Amino acid sequence: MKPARAASAGPQFAPAIEQRYQNDLVPDKLAIFVRTNIVAAGLFAAWGLFDPFTMSQGVAAAWMVRLAMVVLNLGCALLALRQRALFARHYTAWVSGIYLCWGLAMEAIIALAAPGDLAWTAYYAGLILMTFGLYSRTYLNAAPALAVGGFYVLTYWILTLQVGQIGTRQDLLVLLTNSFFLVSANVVGLLSLHTRDRLARRAFLLQLQLKGDVAQGAQAVREQQHVARHDPLTGLLNRHGFQQRLDELLASTADGRGVLAVIFIDLDDFKPVNDTYGHAAGDAVLRAVAKRMRAALRATDVMARAGGDEFIAALVLAEPHGPALRKLCASLEHGVTQPPVWEGQVLAVQASLGSATSSEFGADAAVLVARADERMYAHKRQHKAARRADEAQRGR
């Protein structure tokens, strides 16, 4: 991700990234706005202690202005907390509006004083304080921030020239000095805003890149774990993955709820398929058989390729488990005996199955697999014996 272009306040992103950046700033914007309004309410109230000493008239009216600002600040903080979405959508209006209100309030308090009062010179320090807050305690873009800062300078000139008294050289010097510091505060603040925005955007890009790297790393780990636990040909679990899932199923039946069943499946007549049609045909048979047997099981059941043409399944059955287990074994056998077609050739195979349950042999994974394997070979011998008998019958 690269910045799309550069602007006065720092590098700007492509629209989608810019939206993510702005959304990421919302919690910080809200927290700063609330804290700043609370601090401003305290400052407006505390500053009123100086009014009797800096103003020869209008002290009561100045205190009313200060009280209004305290109520406004606390109300804005509370409203922003309750209307976070509205605050986020109209952040510039909220912040610019409150800073404009602060400037107007300060100018009003100064105007209430008599020309020549100390407030006319001393209270402009408040405008400088607000200016620094404007650039350092907000996420305004350069244009609205500069507009508010310029409003402070303009209203200061209008108030001083229209209401105040510029009758002496000293008065003119005060006007020029205060104007210099107000303008300087805006220039310094604008440079600080530019630098902070540029650094914040760079940090956000690094954050996105780091998240992307972490996500890619996590995905790579998941893929490695999948490869380590699954058979690449059929997509079923391999022996290692099956053992892990078998242990989990055993743990789920430790409290006596349910019976764990293990079913071993071996394909009969698979070697002739490989010898006659090649390994590609054998792979097609294995994939087709695996898909059909997996479809015969529930999502919570476990199916794995044990190796070669051997498969193994594990599942938890409710009591009584006998009928359900026999039905499932029949479904698995039926899935195997449905002959897949490969390049126009019907590739028929048979299945020998053997099952073992925890109710028979206890909750020992190795024992269950071994007993299911033994019964599968017994079933295979029955198939071979039946086939020899059938061949002998046909030869008579």
Automatic annotation (TrEMBL):
<dbReference type="InterPro" id="IPR029787">
    <property type="entry name" value="Nucleotide_cyclase"/>
</dbReference>
<feature type="transmembrane region" description="Helical">
    <location>
        <begin position="62"/>
        <end position="81"/>
    </location>
</feature>
<feature type="transmembrane region" description="Helical">
    <location>
        <begin position="93"/>
        <end position="112"/>
    </location>
</feature>
<keyword id="KW-0472">Membrane</keyword>
<keyword id="KW-1133">Transmembrane helix</keyword>
<feature type="domain" description="GGDEF">
    <location>
        <begin position="258"/>
        <end position="392"/>
    </location>
</feature>
<keyword id="KW-0812">Transmembrane</keyword>
<dbReference type="Pfam" id="PF00990">
    <property type="entry name" value="GGDEF"/>
</dbReference>
<feature type="transmembrane region" description="Helical">
    <location>
        <begin position="172"/>
        <end position="193"/>
    </location>
</feature>
<protein>
    <submittedName>
        <fullName>GGDEF domain-containing protein</fullName>
    </submittedName>
</protein>
<feature type="transmembrane region" description="Helical">
    <location>
        <begin position="142"/>
        <end position="160"/>
    </location>
</feature>
<feature type="transmembrane region" description="Helical">
    <location>
        <begin position="118"/>
        <end position="135"/>
    </location>
</feature>
<dbReference type="InterPro" id="IPR052163">
    <property type="entry name" value="DGC-Regulatory_Protein"/>
</dbReference>
<feature type="transmembrane region" description="Helical">
    <location>
        <begin position="30"/>
        <end position="50"/>
    </location>
</feature>
<dbReference type="InterPro" id="IPR043128">
    <property type="entry name" value="Rev_trsase/Diguanyl_cyclase"/>
</dbReference>
<dbReference type="InterPro" id="IPR000160">
    <property type="entry name" value="GGDEF_dom"/>
</dbReference>
